[in-house]
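Progress report, Aim 2. The chain analyzed during this reporting quarter is listed below.
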Amino acid sequence: MLAIETFDQRQGGNVLYKALSHPLAAAALGALTARLRPLAPIALFDPDGIAPALLALAPDLPPIGEVYVQDARAIGREIAGLPARPLTELPQSAAGALLIAAFDADRIVARLAPLLPAGVECLSLDAIRLPRELLTVPERYAERRNFATNFAFFRDQDGLSTRLVSANYWSGYGAGAVRLWLRLFAADGSVLATWEEALPSGAGGFALDSRAIRARFGLPPFTGQLFLHVIGAAGHDVVKYALDTFPTDTSGATASLSCTHDANAWPSERYAGLPAPRADERVILWVQNSHAVTIPAGAIALDRMGAERPVAFSRPIAPFATEALDVAALLPGVHWPAQIEVRAGRHVVRPRYEVVRAGRTRIAHVNVERADLAPDPALRTLAAPLGRGFLLPFPILPRRRFATIVQPTPMATTETTLPLRLDLFDPEGRPAGSHFLGCLARDHDIALDLDNILAPDALPEGGHGELVYDFRAGGDGNGWLHALFRYADRETRHEAESSFGGHIFNTLMTYRDEPQSYNGKPPGLSTRLFLRLGGGGGEGGRQSFTCLIYPTSAPWHPHSATSLLLHDAGGAVIAETHLAIAGSGSALIRPRDVFGPDRLARAGANGYVLVRDTTCRLFGYHGLMDAAGGFSLDHMFGF
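Predicted structure tokens for the chain:
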């Protein structure tokens, strides 16, 4: 496993990891290595405890002969395979150079210079700093906003294209000029293009279209990854987007459509929620190396969830390269509804997977499987004001046309049981049934088709369901409740799927960090969700829709006070409408029906709808539908 610390649920992301792994920093590390090589052996001073990450991301550094620390408690601790020595012994160093593993190190260099033996060169990680023009806060290099970065699966090949859509939501936090630094990597990890784009000055929408980028730079067909670096960010360093995969024509095998959420910028040790293929399917896991170091052969592995018999991928993967890993090739004989665990060793951000079936293809993502969670016995006896506690809401699309399948997914390494119940509601929030799934084992193979528990005429216009903990048959919970939701068009056989996790919703009482809040302390009792329009007036017949759900762990306001605000590409609001969603109810909304084609045309290809509510937290899923019978669905993002 790559020896890096990326993200901690309590403290957030490790900005020093991002500073070391940025593509430009990675290239500069090569130059620093070349400079140090004739001075070997070198001494290393590790004031911030980042030596393991530095050595993992710069494996070609020359041999380290001495390691120094300033914290007396760290004396003797093994770092880089050597016992750490106190900094007071630096005058006796026999090294040719001292490397200070820190940024903004001028004061450290000045402090240590008198202690260095004659001829010993002193260098720091300031040698790999990004150019000043790429920094949001240049006076503090290790500042989160300097590394507002993320990756995106990006393709323009085999009749399929991709379009990344988001908005300049940093403007709402007081940002001035905001721009993107972008680098597109090919499948072999080589750089196809590097460029910058300015974002709208206000809260305008923007899109990065693979077709336009390919034409702009005269590129061949490609499947790779796009690195995004936001300069001028304010409020937070999270880069959120929706990514649509769509056909360049609507005939034959490319009559497909899918969307996925942002990639989650933090590499994880494991991921879960990867479905095994049906007998007539091919499931491809797109493994995209997030670093400038090769993923060794055997470092990526797949395991049937709960089997604990991982099968390793036998080939190395080059820096920033993309590898199509066929699930069946590693795990022959493992079929849906079995689930697959991805052992990723912190080499990749949240991967995408592709399901190919009956001439169509769909893209979805796996989720981070946490290693820091233990069962929480208190969930069995939550205080009454928290009601049903953790809920995982999901839409039930209109049943006349769509089938809905639910598959609970273990999402923590310690999770051995999933004691679950499914509660169903119509759009007005009226209960439509309840089904106890049991105390499921980690290796369960349950995928519940709602057709098997609902009457044929139930929920004809859809509604929503909620997975909740139910301990009547024992078991444990941890609050990290996840599931995969699969939807099938009964007419066209096109499918879409999404996966997400549960929260406590809409209670004044709090439990740990729930109800989760985007800003400030919990409880989170407001909504700001982004809904893209699918290309303005409906390019290729694609029209967007959203399923908005008002989940209530305990009784809250009887109805929401929801506003839908149509923005143009510059961020101006050109139309607004309001709706009231019943508590425990839902609404299926199509912007074309709400605002009309003329207003959508005014909004333009990069316009969007902001779903706003200051009285409750709504949970949303969004998607597109096209004229060829394709549709997509994934959970929305807020800011």
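The first helix runs from residue 15 to 21. Residues 270-348 form one domain. These observations will guide the mutagenesis work planned for the next reporting period.
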